[in-house]
Amino acid sequence: MDDTTIVEALLLGILEGLTEFIPVSSTGHILLAGHFLGFESTGKAFEILIQLGAILAILSVYAARLWKMALDLPRDRATQRFVLGVLLAFLPAAVIGVLAYKIIKTVLFETPMLICTTLILGGIVLLWVDRWATRPRYHDATRYPLSVYFGIGLFQCLAMIPGTSRSGSTIVGALLLGADKRSAAEFSFFLAMPTMAGAFAYDLYKNYDALSAADLQIIGVGFVAAFVSALFVVRSLLNYVSVRGYSLFGWWRIIVGIAGMIGLFLFG
């Protein structure tokens, strides 16, 4: 493992942490950045496994709240209902992720132009939804109707296409189904925990035998970088979107998508 690879892994890890929980597609960003850097990981496992850093970041920020939920779960119906809602939202992506795993990793992950296109289209959708004039009906992420939780889960399946964004698809889905901007982002945090943990576990299972010691070291560097940078985002995002909404992220997606297309045309 040379110094250049370590620096690339560090930069990609930081990029993962900064973009995982905002609706811009962390996977799309690190796949595009890796393409132009010439970074190659075994089985594209690096791009998935470093998400563990982001998972631990959100777990650390929400530790007290999650612990309270765990204590209340055996006896509190509201907590039981919310956990059921998270599981309902997680289920569609879990099923499709397993069934379409090979296509996702060998075709969609290897198509940079598709990533640029979905970044742009997703940015346009995000700008439209952010300005959509409707009065939100739901303001507490733990009290959505079960049908809304499942609907958000269906929207999350769009994130199987890199560049779409897991957080972006869940936030857009929540907004369209009547949630306000803050609770939509917060539920995206909660849904990220089982979704990203499941993706991590399944990808590790599929690629573990092919990973070398050098691969694991590179993943470790990316993991630490993702953890540190994700902490910053998780602690600041809810307050930001409550005041300013999501338009900044929509424009960012469009700019990155266009810049990626220009880079592909110029450099291949």
UniProtKB/TrEMBL annotation:
Q: Where in the cell is it found?
A: Cell membrane
Supply the alphabetized keyword list: Antibiotic resistance, Cell membrane, Cell shape, Cell wall biogenesis/degradation, Hydrolase, Membrane, Peptidoglycan synthesis, Transmembrane, Transmembrane helix
Top-level division of the source organism's lineage: Bacteria
Q: Which Pfam families match?
A: BacA
InterPro entries referenced in this protein's UniProt entry, alphabetically: UppP (IPR003824)
Coiled-coil boundaries: none
The transmembrane segments are 48-70, 82-101, 107-129, 141-163, 183-204, 216-238, 250-267
Task: Quote one Gene Ontology molecular function term.
Answer: undecaprenyl-diphosphatase activity
How this chain sits in the membrane, per its record, is:
Multi-pass membrane protein
Q: Its Enzyme Commission number?
A: 3.6.1.27
Give the reactions, separated by semicolons, that this protein catalyses.
Answer: di-trans,octa-cis-undecaprenyl diphosphate + H2O = di-trans,octa-cis-undecaprenyl phosphate + phosphate + H(+)
| Xref: HAMAP family | Undec_diphosphatase
Q: Which family does it belong to?
A: Belongs to the UppP family.
| Protein role | Catalyzes the dephosphorylation of undecaprenyl diphosphate (UPP). Confers resistance to bacitracin.
| Comment field (misc) | Bacitracin is thought to be involved in the inhibition of peptidoglycan synthesis by sequestering undecaprenyl diphosphate, thereby reducing the pool of lipid carrier available.
Q: What is this protein called?
A: Undecaprenyl-diphosphatase
Q: Which organism is it from?
A: Chelativorans composti
